[in-house]
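Fold it.
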Amino acid sequence: MEKVLFICVHNSARSQMAEAFLKKYANEGEFVVESAGFEPTEINPLVVEVMKEVGIDLSEKKTQSVFDLFKAGKIYSFVMTVCGEGDGQCPVFPGMVHRLHLPFPDPAKVEGTKEEKLDQIRFIRDEIENNVLHFIEWSRSDKTNPLSLVGN
């Protein structure tokens, strides 16, 4: 069983979506998955809304600190950062792990009317979903080629 951690800055959107999609699509017992952030806040309500559209309820989900997981001695097989390029410093989780960086725009930074924001967050959600599906496929194959994870 592979242990997977998705991390981003606030654990309020991207890492939560990635965690939820991996739990949804993986076989039972295939992965233990969590998400965390460098500066955890609250789950973005627009993210909760777009995830409900695909049958995933994040309304009761809490954010957590990557530091708390580290202090608890948690160890992961894969640590995936999902921060975008403009987010500044993306958190790092120490240890001997496979590190993957899958950058996505920050849903908290989308602009426009509520519907325009929802459309942009839906796009981010769908990109995260596609990348999680690629990760699952890659993890079941020969993991010697990390580039096979990238490129859709």
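The chain has a mean pLDDT of 87.
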